[in-house]
Amino acid sequence: MKKLLLLGGSNYLLPVIREAHALGLYVVTCDYLPDNTAHKYADEYRNVSIIDKEAVLETARELGISGVMSFACDPGVTTAAYVAEKLGLPFAGSYEAVSILQDKGRFRAFLRDNGFTVPWAKRYTDAADALADAVDYPWPMIVKPVDSAGSKGVTRVDSAGELPAAIAHALPFSHCGAFIVEQFITQRGFSSDTDCFSVDGELVYCSFDEQRFDERAENPYTPAAYTWPSSMPDEVQRELRGELQRLMRLLKLKSSVYNIETRQGTDGRAYIMEVSPRGGGNRLSEVLELATGVSLIRNAVKAAVDLPVDEMHDPVYNGHWAEVILHSDADGVFSELRIDPAVRPCVVETDLWVAPGDRVERFSGANKAIGTLVLNFPDRETLETRMADESWYRVVTK
Fold first, then answer.
1. Strand order in 121-124's β-sheet?
2. Which CATH class is domain 3-89?
3. Comparing C-alpha atoms, which of 69, 19, 66, 72 is closest to residue 41?
4. Where in the chain are the domains?
5. CA–CA separation, 116 vs 237, rounded Å?
6. Per-residue pLDDT reduced to its tens digit, 221-244
7. Distance of alpha carbon 251 from its chain centroid, rounded?
8. CATH number for the domain formed by residue range(s) 120-183
9. How crowded is the C-beta side of 231, counted as CA atoms within 13 Å?
10. Mean pLDDT of 306-313
11. Which CATH number fits domain 192-397: 3.40.50.620, 1.25.40.10, 3.50.50.60, 3.30.470.20?
């Protein structure tokens, strides 16, 4: 029996475990938090930190694994690449290529050096160096850790006086103690943050969506909803698809699911913001399967253990889809989720991770989400009406 090692233990791993079991695989989950949800559904759990590459490698050797994944779990991606390379297992790319993708500073430099459209950016480990460079920054800027996901530690700064606090906020979220100061690119329309797939280095499934935010949230840069299909102009989507393909060839990437963030700036230019060889959080691959009929998760599992993946093509959407990231506006105790009866016929799935009486925290990052709603609307107009005024649902706390 083939063994699949999954790094992490969040709710987002449950569909991965289901697909792996459907394929007859033995699943081992691994992290340092034994109470995480996914461990209850795996065949075996190992208590090992996923950022300790050597410890995970030792565990993988002991288990005799056939593949390794860090699905929807950003901190484990480079570790998974390291283990795969050391053991000669399938993975998205080499450890070096994946390390470039997973470090925002190195990724920006790679894009710049290879002629991609890229915002001004610089990687730092010392706050004093960033402050010394501030006189040359093209304000406004974004400060964020180089190796964190879910918008944790991200702050917009409009002047040098705001930099120290932003850097102090970013650094605790960085595993390597580095941060990036990057030009803030205002998007035209909506930015896109969705999942894609390559097979043998060819981008076979390239999706774009509309990333939406809650301006009332403590962290207004944490995605609060997604909608498909994207309203980004077709010519911009084609340009980005071509540039993503060029990136994959330059880095010699192979077969994998990717979480990819892109946008068109108000300057009219198309930007690749993030490319991570993992499934995205917030159930993006699951919603895409509902919306397009293509299982990125099943194919990601197959690629991880060197099984032939299903035939794929760029998405064709069966309607107008939305995913709402349920969250609380304040710290408190969860009471109930209220949904307007008029909208209920459009609700395809309600995935609630808390029960009445559970403590919830205000929405400071993706890790503070308490569930999701997946909706299928009859037309674009209805989608826009509901997304523009989200009073039709309410997370009630005490």
1. 121-124, 179-183, 141-145, 155-157
2. alpha beta
3. 19
4. 3-89, 120-183, 192-397
5. 15
6. 889 999 999 999 999 999 999 999
7. 20
8. 3.30.1490.20
9. 15
10. 97
11. 3.30.470.20
Q: How far is CA 91 from CA 35, 97, 105, 301, in A?
A: 28, 11, 23, 11
Identify the band that residue 216 occupies on the pLDDT scale cut at 50, 70 and 90. confident
Model's pTM, two decimal places? 0.95
Question: Percent of the chain beyond pLDDT 90?
Answer: 95
How far apart CA 194 and CA 372 sit, in angstroms, is: 16
Calpha distance 59→54 (Å, rounded): 9
Assign 68 to helix, strand or coil: strand
- At which residue do the structure tokens 């309607």 appear? 319
Q: How far apart are CA 181 and CA 49, in angstroms?
A: 29
- Cα–Cα distance for residue pair 277/289, rounded to 1 Å: 18
Buried b (16+ CB within 10 A) or exposed e, 153-177: bbbebeeeebbeebbebbbebbeee
Number of neighbouring beta carbons within 10 Å of residue 228:
24
Q: Are strands 210-213 and 371-377 parallel, antiparallel or unpaired?
A: unpaired
Question: Are 256 and 80 spatial neighbours (Cβ–Cβ below 8 Å)?
Answer: no
In terms of Cβ atoms closer than 10 Å to its own Cβ (0-12, 13-18, 19+), residue 317 is: middle
Q: What is the DSSP string of 198-213?
A: EETTEEEE----EEEE
Residues with Cβ within 8 Å of residue 240, at least 6 apart in sequence: 208, 262, 270, 272
Dihedral sign, Cα of residue 261, residue 199, residue 92, residue 321: positive
Alpha-carbon gap, residue 122 to 144, rounded angstroms: 11
Q: Can you tell me whether residue 234 is helix, strand or coil?
A: helix
To 5 degrees, how large is the angle CA 193–CA 71–CA 313?
60
